[in-house]
Amino acid sequence: MRSNSRVYRSLRYHVGSSAIALPIRAPGATRTANYMRYRDRDPASPADASDLKGLRGWRRVIRAGGYSWAGLRAAYAGEAAFRQLLLLNAVLVLLALRLDFTGVERALLFAVSMLSLVVELLNSAIEAAMDRISLDLHPLAGRAKDMGSAAQSVALLMILGVWLLLLLDRK
Predict the structure, then answer these.
(1) Euclidean distance between the first and final Cα of the chain, in Å?
(2) Is the pLDDT of residue 11 over 50?
(3) Given a cut of 90, is residue 54 above it in pLDDT?
(4) Could you tell me if 166 and 112 are in contact, meaning their C-beta atoms sit under 8 angstroms apart?
(5) Handedness of CA 137, 138, 139, 144 (dihedral sign)
(6) How far apart, in whole angstroms, are the C-alpha atoms of residue 2 and residue 8?
(7) Is the pLDDT of residue 163 over 80?
(8) The CA-based dihedral angle spanning residues 145, 151, 155, 158, taken in that order and rounded to the nearest 10 degrees
(9) SS3 of residue 163 by DSSP
(10) How far apart, in whole angstroms, are the C-alpha atoms of residue 55 and residue 48?
């Protein structure tokens, strides 16, 4: 690797006793110039993740929708907390539709319910990524998982707070 190149640099990750060089784009370098330089080194590898995408337009959107649906199915199948939140939020949304709330209040109740599902999906993704990296106990992995759990707790407290404020305002 040439360290004085303006277009191509690499990060070296040390895994065990071996080092892996990953290409990164130098500041101000064009994707084409970076790719051409890297392609000459290893023709089987793309320069970055955008070279792997390939699809454009509606086909890409449809493919992304399929990945999203697969993620929702995986969360439902593998995460009890996601199923519990889905049930809780279904009850809360139905209750919001049944009670005498304005349209803006209903939108707010729906938004905080959906936010808790988003946070749970992100929390599950963080946990899956940490487990993929290593099942060994590591302080940073534990901290990442704890922060994801804390984010979910804050989202649930936000649901409780919004519901309490709107219900107490009714009296």
Answers:
(1) 71
(2) no
(3) no
(4) no
(5) negative
(6) 8
(7) yes
(8) 140
(9) helix
(10) 15
- By CB neighbour count within 10 A (0-12 exposed, 13-18 middle, 19+ buried), where does 23 fall? buried
> How confident is the model at residue 141, as a pLDDT?
83
| Contact predicate 7/33, CB 8 Å | yes
Higher pLDDT, 36 or 145: 145
- Type and span of the H or E element at 84: helix 80-98
Report the alpha-carbon distance of residue 148 to residue 152 in Å, rounded: 6
For 126, what's the count of Cα atoms within 13 Å in the CB-facing half-sphere?
Answer: 19
Q: Across the chain, what does the average pLDDT equal? A: 78
Residue 78 neighbours by CB under 8 Å, 6+ apart:
124
Query: What's the CA gap between 39 and 12, in Å, rounded?
Result: 18
Residues in the chain: 171
Confidence bin at 82 (pLDDT 50/70/90): very high
Name the residues annotated as catalytic.
120
pLDDT in tens, 131-141: 888 888 888 88
Q: Please, are residues 112 and 159 in contact by the beta-carbon 8 Å criterion?
A: yes
Task: Check the CA dihedral 20-22-27-33 and report its sign.
Answer: positive
Whole-number pLDDT of residue 136: 81
Question: Token pair of 76, please?
Answer: 């439902």
